[in-house]
Amino acid sequence: MRATRRNPARASASARSAAPPTDRVVGHIRRLIEGHRLKPGDRLPTERELARDMKVSRASVRSGLQSLSAMGVVRSRQGAGTFIQDGPPSLDSQPLGLLAALHGFSSEEMFEARGVLEVGVAGLSAQRASGEQTATMAEEVASMFAALNDPHTFLVHDVRFHRAVAAGSNNPVLAALVEMTSTLLFERRRTTIERARDLRESAEMHRRIYLAIRRGHAETARTAMAEHLRLAEEALAVEDALAATRAAA
Amino acid sequence: MRATRRNPARASASARSAAPPTDRVVGHIRRLIEGHRLKPGDRLPTERELARDMKVSRASVRSGLQSLSAMGVVRSRQGAGTFIQDGPPSLDSQPLGLLAALHGFSSEEMFEARGVLEVGVAGLSAQRASGEQTATMAEEVASMFAALNDPHTFLVHDVRFHRAVAAGSNNPVLAALVEMTSTLLFERRRTTIERARDLRESAEMHRRIYLAIRRGHAETARTAMAEHLRLAEEALAVEDALAATRAAA
DNA sequence: GCGAACGAGTGGTCAGACCAATAGTCGTTC
DNA sequence: GAACGACTATTGGTCTGACCACTCGTTCGC
Fold first, then answer.
1. Partner B, chain A 45-84, Cβ-Cβ below 8 Å
2. Measured by CB atoms within 10 angstroms of the end CB, which terminus of chain B is less buried, N or C?
3. From its phi and psi, is residue A13 left (phi > 0), alpha (psi between -120 and 50) or beta?
């Protein structure tokens, strides 16, 4: 038989440590979170402590933490420590961004996905948003009207408005998904927003969405959001065309 | 003077290397992908090569690749190499899973998010799914009927059906989002599926969704999907209750 | 010809050291 | 006494070099 190797001891006894060190670290932190022994904002043990306690090298600890960091679960600050990410849940949009680059997601596809998500979210938001939440939306709409001559500022409030609508759904899962997709298009549009032509129309659309939500008209809110996204997609196409024209010159 | 110290040359000449090594590695790979010099399935240069070419340590290269791996952009196989992830684009569901644990997403919230996504997807799928795509759905439905007495197998085909519907939308962004959320609930339900009572009803619902999509009836497909998810949510609640009862005994 | 053994190459882990940023401590100064 | 500033222990970030575990193409033996 030779007993040449393979995994030493697997079936019985000592059921642990079958997994590679990096995975053990991720699982360890994960269990701490799921067991509510680590809450958002909490500081993790230092890398050196984790390495000692788990009997792995610090390199493996760092490897695991690097994964968690990429997923947006923790955040490390040199000299201070590693902390559980707090604030509103939000998948880092970087993953989707890279996948977008990798598979060449088109703007049409992005807008369509946004449409499916945000139209539904607008409906839910109309049914549930609190007064405070609708007030936030109102503020962003006002800021948009105030920034009609400053495209970059306008865009910032645009994104914040959509975030506020998502928050109004009071569903953190949906809010995280909306955040992810809208951030992505934000990155994209930031480079072309200077060529936007009709910000007033866009602001007006946002105002109509806000009014529908505030009045609790779910279907009206859904329709307005759908219409808004349709126009926004057209606007982006126009801006792209202008950018392409200029590039050719 | 001693000349010990600090970063040699920063202001002028050699304008690069401002960013930390790990970020440089991520950016480097990202540029390779965005410049289409790396396609899905391609093999990356070895870690030692990257380290040499970029003039950073292998540890930093590994750090960057670890991030990309956590995002599902690349995948490393010991002894073979590191490859750009191919296959259908799919965010690793692990990020959402950890966020779910971290913020305590409830089943209701998950189902609601699924509802918003998949109802919309069902409508799009009815409008666009190819014959091959609907055929895949039909196969999964058939497999579900064949597995009425085997809950675990049933559940596998259940998930695959929803994946097939998402594929039918022909929108990779939506497909990735659906994949992420449904995988999450799959993990959850796998532990309670044994207590399911009425798989036949569930299979029948899936069949109705399939028929609506095949016939191109978008609104019917949306309604059927919404109804299905509503029933599935109830079923999960019942299974949970049973599990809780048994646990108490 | 074909399977088994080999070995170069690759990612995974370990060890120890040093660098860089942080945050608390303690003294100085006004 | 309060505010400011240098000092220092602590912590994450990087580097180095070594070894391990696995993969896969090659080569050897039958």
1. 59, 62-63, 66-73, 84
2. N
3. left
